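Re: your question from the hallway

Yes, I did run it. Sequences:
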Amino acid sequence: AQRVTQPEKLLSVFKGAPVELKCNYSYSGSPELFWYVQYSRQRLQLLLRHISRESIKGFTADLNKGETSFHLKKPFAQEEDSAMYYCALSGQGTSYGKLTFGQGTILTVHP
Amino acid sequence: EAGVAQSPRYKIIEKRQSVAFWCNPISGHATLYWYQQILGQGPKLLIQFQNNGVVDDSQLPKDRFSAERLKGVDSTLKIQPAKLEDSAVYLCASSFQDGPYEQYFGPGTRLTVT
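Structure:
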């Protein structure tokens, strides 16, 4: 079974502060990990995926297989980063393409 | 490109009534997903189609939920009869192919069962 845990439902930081949204997963294999984001009154959309190893809007995430984590980080948070963030996992075999989402973390960046 | 379309956006029904949701994916996307998102939780996959065939419906409550994608394009999700616990946002998503590709989400249908 595959499972994704986001331990923080709410996270508040001030503009310019570093931010880290935690994600831990459970999967017996090599997963694909994603971060999806939902801004206010917008659709859920892909922020980044570990396989592409790119930085989007200043965010990065490193897959740590030893700790089974995929934390999302940004060195200097901006007010426009305020949103709901979901970590998601796609497995292999019959789970290929099937996304399992965490419960989400609401990030609020204060001015 | 046009995004994933869903209708209706909101629906209020009484328990034991039936309801249907419609989804039109991005043109050319072979894979279509229906998710259920209960308040305070992340989306949960209900069913996945590859063209007009079902890939995964292991989490679909088949005694009351049904879905089809007859021509491999549009899809409908039906609940009959609805229960109070079916109150949720129903999200449709599509991707180019089956696999760990980006999924594009629709705006969702918010269902309230009273």
